[in-house]
Amino acid sequence: MSMSKIEQQGRREFLKKAAIGSAVTIAPGVMLHSLSAEAAPRTEPVTGKVRWGMLVDANKCADGCNDCVAACDKENGLDLVDMPEGADESQWERQRPRWIRQITLKDNLTGRLTHLPMMCQHCEEPPCADVCPTGASFRRADGIVMVDRHICIGCRYCMMACPYKARSFIHAEVAEKLTHTPRGKGCVESCNFCVHRLDNGQTTTACQDACKHQAIVFGDLNDPQSAVSQALKKYPSVAIRDDLKLNPGVRYSNI
Amino acid sequence: MIFLTMALSGLLGLGSAGVSAAEAVEGSAKSDKLEQCVEPTSVMRRNHFEFIKHQRDLTVHEGIRGSKYSLAGCVDCHAKKDSSGKFVPVNEEGQFCDECHDYVAVDLKCFECHATVPREK
Fold first, then answer.
1. What tens digit of pLDDT does each residue of A114-132 get?
2. How far is B119 from chain A (nearest CA, A)?
3. Which residues are registered as beta bridge partners of A55?
4. pLDDT tens digits, B20-55
5. Complex ipTM
6. Which residues of A touch B114 (CB under 8 A)?
7. DSSP states of A188-244 as a string?
8. pTM of the model
9. What CA–CA distance (Å, rounded) separates B116 from B71?
10. In chain A, what are the domains?
11. How far is it between the farthest Cα atoms of chain A?
């Protein structure tokens, strides 16, 4: 982070003011700020001053709970994608677009089971963007890794390159789409941290809002005062496949 | 627009052609109550595609969603309702987008991905 002291001070003052009237305590020392009072569509380009990120506490993530996946499906219109005519049902379950997958890990030595949501990890060095032949896969200045569907040719190199199996392909025409999540045949897509919310001034993702166990903390990794930075500072966490040195924006604790 | 509609009707020898066009209620779009679009009508007719094309890059790559031009804005304003109050997709035969694009043989790709009725909520 390369913000000057003065800039930081200004930012803190702003956050302090913004927090008045709408701050929720989610855990001791961890605050969720809602900036809904200032919510307005973004008019300036995103910058690297912000890096969106997430901390998932696998201990809080409950077995059998599907709330984040369902919320994501609804928010991003994934539930509107129908099975293509004549497709095999079991194949469809494996191939249907999913931005979050519920994963269960088992420690073979102890038998301990861990549940966690797996989605695009929003890498600082995204392999999907590296391999994309058209530049459709890209990393936005604020750290969100996305697909520009206007230039995606559907080659699916990115799906092969992603170590997190985070991307989905749309195999057939989609009858019903949401205004904020366009979707069509022949493009790859994945979690975009609910970018339409962030660009319209909101500061939460659908999965975070839906998690009744409060396993997901989302926010600006560059802001030391943000809930996610505070939580990362307080609790031990890991990046999955840290060996690849991708510096993902999504971290996990207790796995 | 009126000219084009007339030309189209003249060519095909029909009223505004298509089943859905007959269902859409004239004057039910938001735009019907407005003086002009985000630019004067003559400018919009000539340049609307330029506006949207540049705006799409700004939105996807730079996150700018408060700009004057947007495809969602077109749909929001220009979609008509049918007699039951349900929106008619703007790309259906005889509707706002299709009306001209069909006449000038523009193969429209926006709505393979984008919503054709105003935003939910």
1. 999 999 999 999 999 999 9
2. 5
3. A217, A251
4. 445 788 888 888 888 889 999 999 999 999 999 889
5. 0.78
6. 177, 179, 182
7. EE---SSHHHHHTT----HHHHH-TT--EEEEETT-TTSHHHHHHHHS--B-TTGGG
8. 0.80
9. 10
10. 52-253 (3.30.70.20)
11. 62
